[in-house]
Amino acid sequence: MLLLILLLFNGFGYCGGSTDAPQALGLHHPAAEEPLIFHLLHIASFKNHSWAQSRASAWLGDLETHSWDTVLGTIRFLKPWSQGNFSKVELKNLQALFQLYFRGFTMEVQAFAHQFQFEYPFELQISAGCSLHPGQAPESFLNGAYQGSDLLSFRGSSWEPSPGAGSRAQNVCEVLNRYQDIKEIVHSILSDTCPQFLAGLIAAGKSELERQVKPEAWLSSSPSSGPGLLQLVCHVSGFHPKPVWVMWMRGEQEQKGTQRGDVLPNADETWYLRVTLDVAAVEAAGLSCRVKHSSLGGHDIVIHWGGYSILLTLVCLTIIVTLVMLVVLGSWYQKQSSNQNALSSGVSSCTFPLENNTQCPRSLVHQLCLAQESWIKNRILKWKRSRNQFF
Ligand SMILES: *[C@@H]1O[C@H](CO)[C@@H](O)[C@H](O)[C@H]1NC(C)=O
Ligand SMILES: *[C@@H]1O[C@H](CO)[C@@H](O)[C@H](O)[C@H]1NC(C)=O
């Protein structure tokens, strides 16, 4: 029995190590950062031939950096660094261009609505922007949609109907392609102005964009579809930047059934991710959720599913059983003075290697066990003392 306790307490040594996973695992690292895309989103709603409304915003990746004030006809800069490295004059010129665009867009669409077979009420969406790839030419894009379906895009220096968009799209492109000046302006903004602005914006917003915030992780479960099945849920929240690697593991083995949700935004511009695994309830023990993120500097978060509680239950049960036996045996030996030598040697070798277990988590359960451990030690010391007095 004492040997069993020793083994268990030695085993206890690895119940910690939660955040210090071995590095030489050869596991994937969080996806390399995707290139940042800067894009402008314009949504125009047309109720009837005399009523229309436009909303516009600009985004750097998932971060809203600008919006358009439709009343004042001005750019709103939503971040302290939203002006990038453009001068006041350059920004003023851009603002004037956008004023012209928003006004002209509404007027032209209303004028051509009948010819383009746009049926009131309808919505047009335009997404235009660019991205920078290290060592490559910048890429730019402009896509338009009618009622939520792709309609056209701007490629090279002309308008092209989207595949499957039909005669309406061909008709629109045919008309748009007649305006050479507009095509040149669009081309210049997409291929020159946008990448320049984006580079300046990334430089100006560097500290916020590269902000590293560590994730928190916790586990929960919910009954799964079938009887005896369990859905284990690993929640990872509060991290920045967005790329993160989360996997359900058994030891070093990635669990293939791991399902990853969408990375969702928190209100404080950090991210949240939910990763689930459906397992038979009896197989849940020994599973863990592993999180890799750039903010963790290689120290993955590993949370064990019920790992401690099962081990601790076993340990505590063993302790209690042993205790009872020791107490019973002790009082029995105090009364019966036979066979002392054999027992004496057994007890003096009873040293608990507890002091080395500094890695164990300071959880409530663990403190409880520590308390029990010291209680056992005291018991044994007392018992030894009383035995010494006795002899
Ligand atoms: C157009 O729609 C607006 C907003 O719904 C409405 O107030 C207006 O009377 C409509 N005009 C016409 C000509 O139907
Ligand atoms: C802004 O910075 C980018 C990249 O550093 C550069 O290409 C561009 O010319 C700059 N623009 C201005 C107005 O300084």
UniProtKB/TrEMBL annotation:
It is a single-pass type I membrane protein. One of its GO terms (molecular function) is endogenous lipid antigen binding. It comes from the Eukaryota. CDD domains: IgC1_CD1. SMART domains: IGc1 (SM00407). Residues 1-17 form the signal peptide. Residues 215-295 form the Ig-like domain. PANTHER family: MHC CLASS I-RELATED (PTHR16675), T-CELL SURFACE GLYCOPROTEIN CD1E, MEMBRANE-ASSOCIATED (PTHR16675:SF146). This is T-cell surface glycoprotein CD1e, membrane-associated. It comes from Fukomys damarensis (Damaraland mole rat).
